[in-house]
Structures are given as structure tokens and as C-alpha cells.
Design brief:
Helix 1 packs antiparallel against helix 2 and helix 3 packs across helix 4. This protein folds into 2 domains: 50 residues; 35 residues, no CATH class. The longest helix is centred in the first third of the chain and has 26 residues. Strand 1 and strand 2 form a beta hairpin. A two-stranded antiparallel sheet has the order 1-2. The radius of gyration is 18 Å and the shape is elongated. Helix content is 54%, strand content 6%.
Amino acid sequence: MTLAVRVALQKAEKALVRRVEELEARVQAGEVALWPDYLEAVKTLAAIAPTLTPENGGPMLTTGEMAARLGVAPKTLLRHKARGRIHPAVQRGKLLRWSGSERLL
């Protein structure tokens, strides 16, 4: 996926989230005629969301975010990295970023 496509999808995701929130509030307020619009926006958001995950070229994860994804503390994740049981996607000095697809060995 090209950078331009990723940027466009990220913008679309933000717009869809705003639209879903707006429609949700109106549906909950009793505007039942908006249910089809609400459901269509939710379906569209659900369709593009998987393409924006880190492992599919979305934003990289911080150590804290990756630790939460693995269900461990950030310090534990760093210990595993130090022991060679997991490797970050990017490491530049102290900067670590994770693609989201890494697994503990």
C-alpha cells in the first residue's frame, strides 16, 4: 500500500469515526430513520479498520502499546527484547517501534 493510500485511508477513518459518533447520538435520541445510515457508516469503518493496523502498514506501536497487545508490562517486553526473545521493527538508539506482528520466541 502506498503512502498516499495510507494517508487517505487514515483521513477517511477519522471522518467515519466522527460520522458514526454523530449518527449514534441522533439514533439514541430517537431518530430511528437514521439507522440505515448509521449501520452503513459502521460497516464501512469496520471494512477499512483492518487495513490501518500496524502490521498492515499503519502507524508503528510504542513499547507500551506493544506490551499491552501482548498482555505484558512494558518493562517485561524490554526484558524479552534484551534476551533476544523478541525484536522490534525499528530500533534507532533508544527509539523502539513495533510493527504489531512481532511474537515472543
